[in-house]
Amino acid sequence: MRWNNSRMKAILPLLLWSWCSELVVGDAAQNLIGSEANVVNDLLAKNLRQRKKRGILKKREVSLASVLFPRVAPVEYPTGQEMSMYIDLVTSRQSNVPFEYYKLGVCPPIAAGRKMKKNLGEKLKGHSVSRPAPYQLNVERDLGCQTLCQVEIDQKKIDRFIRLTRQRYRVNLSLDGLPVYVQQNSELNIINKGYPIGARLKDGDGTNFYLHNHLRFTIHFHQDRTNFNGNRIVGFEVKPVSIQHETNSETPSTCTPETIGISNKLNSLVKLEIPINEDSLKIIYSYEVAWQESGTTWADRWDIYIDACVDESSLHHARVINSLFVFVALLVTATLTFVGMLRKDYKDIIFDGEPTDDDDKGWKLLHADVFRPPSYSPLALSVLIGNGAQIMIIVICTFILISFRVINPMKKGQALGAIFMLYILSGGVCGYVSARLFKVFGGNNWKMSTIWSAATLPGFLMTLFLILNIMLTAAGAANSVSIWTILLIFILWTCMSLPLVFLGSYLGFKGEKISVPTKTNQIARVVPEQIRLGDSLFGSFLIGLTAFSTITVEIYMIMSTIW
Question: For residue 38, what pLDDT is reported?
Answer without folding.
Answer: 56
